[in-house]
Amino acid sequence: MAALLGLVLTACNSGPAAEKSAASSAPAATSATPPAAAKKRLLFFGNSLTAGLGVEPEQAFAGLVGQKVDSLGLPYEVINAGLSGETTAGGRSRVGWILRQPVDVFVLELGANDGLRGIPLASTRQNLQGIVDTVRRRSPGAHIVLAGMQIPPNMGQAYATEFKAVFQEIAAKNHLVLIPFLLEGVGGHPDLNQADGIHPTPAGHRVVARTVWATLGPLLK
């Protein structure tokens, strides 16, 4: 799953005659006009769901959120760091590289591939915690949003139940903002998923984007 990795990143001059006239009768300016404030950085870090496997980048939920941010004139650049096939272990190994520059909002969408592969939940829990710890160390003031996931009971109902609980536990332990279930209203709906039954269609991504925005929007505003 999860493809978040396509990294997405988004003056008024006086006339020369006026400047020449002013220069002859006034002291030189002591400093240049200050540049516009730098945009804050909103980073989506995930797997093929974030990357938008099977759809155009602008159709994936991260791209749609970026369009919403732009339309509202919010001071954020949106970065899509989704990578197809990423597990929590892979994410933990690359998050430090991704955070070479600090971020202001970090959306963590990983774990689904762990669940589909039946990876021990202790490892998933440890890796998610490791990613959170790295974000807190590299970008101490960042808001961290955790996307909750659920899986079908292919690995047994007990595994599926505990898998869902991992995200709730990590969010509670670290005081993270939690999206209860990223694929709410999309998972299990054939008309909103591609032929693999896993990755959303463009219409499915629009539903996911609304789910994400309901949690993320208040943070950005």
TrEMBL record:
Keywords, ordered alphabetically: Signal
Keyword Translocase belongs to the record: no
Secretion signal span: 1-17
InterPro entries given in the database record: Ester_Hydrolysis_Enzymes, SGNH_hydro, SGNH_hydro_sf
Name listed for the protein in its UniProt record: Arylesterase
Biological classification of the source: Bacteria, Pseudomonadati, Bacteroidota, Cytophagia, Cytophagales
Pfam families listed in its UniProt record: Lipase_GDSL_2
SGNH hydrolase-type esterase domain boundaries: 44-207
Organism: Hymenobacter glaciei
